[in-house]
Amino acid sequence: MKTTLLFNEKSQITGIREHWLFDKMYTAFALHDFDPNHNGKLDKDELMQLATENMNGLKEFNYFTVMEMMDGKAITLGAATNIESFLENEQIVIAFTLPLNEPLDMTARQMTLRIYDPTYYIDMGYYEKDPVSFDKNAPKSCTFKVTRPAVDINMISAAAALDKKAVAPKDFGYSFAEVVTVSCK
């Protein structure tokens, strides 16, 4: 996946654009189960139906997205907009924008962003190349760092012990999420 932070003319963050590339297994599953016309491919309308169903289901989970200031204060996100779905390298992509409820002044501040499945069922990770970007209104001083989680052996063992009928502890996926730290000096 990759994320673009969106800024207004006052250099405040107003939203984020997420780009999720689904794995080949999910794409094959979707081709089998979400191909109503049975033509062996996912048409534009079918991809949008799939994206809409995904977004409707993810709304109650805040679209798997958590933004926080460095002091732990949550940044409130609105409902997904500008939803798109298409194929990239024969894999499904769902792209969407999450607006912030209030613009966020990043002058001399830091925030974190985590995108993860709280149940730990879906593995989510950033692209190696260009995982995060800033739109044209971002201050030139803005930087980001993607940090892989430092997960101890007990957490790994607990995750490995989950079978498909098990329910992970609440917000279990948080411990496995990559963390994007954004700074604007």
Please explain how this structure is put together.
The protein has helices spanning 24-33, 44-58, 153-160; strands spanning 2-7, 12-21, 65-69, 74-75, 81-88, 91-105, 109-115, 132-134, 142-147, 179-184. Helices cover 18% and strands 37% of the residues. The protein contains three helices and ten strands; from the N terminus they run ββααβββββββαβ. The chain is of the alpha+beta class and 185 residues long. The two termini are 26 Å apart. The protein is globular, with a radius of gyration of 17 Å. A hairpin with a 2-residue loop joins strand 5 and strand 6.
Which blocks of ≥5 consecutive residues have pLDDT under 50?
none
Q: Report helical residue fraction.
A: 10-25%
Largest sheet geometry: 5 strands, mixed
Q: What's the mean pLDDT score?
A: 89
Instruction: Give the neighbour order of strands across the main sheet.
Output: 5-6-2-1-8
Please report which band the strand proportion falls in: under 5%, 5-15%, 15-25%, 25-35%, 35-45% or over 45%. 35-45%
Order of SSEs: EEHHEEEEEEEHE
Helix/strand/pairing class, anyone?
Answer: alpha+beta
Let me know the number of strands: 10
Number of helices: 3
Indicate the overall shape. Answer: globular
| Through-space gap between termini | 26 Å
Protein traits:
globular, 185 residues, 5-stranded antiparallel β-sheet, alpha+beta, 5-stranded mixed β-sheet
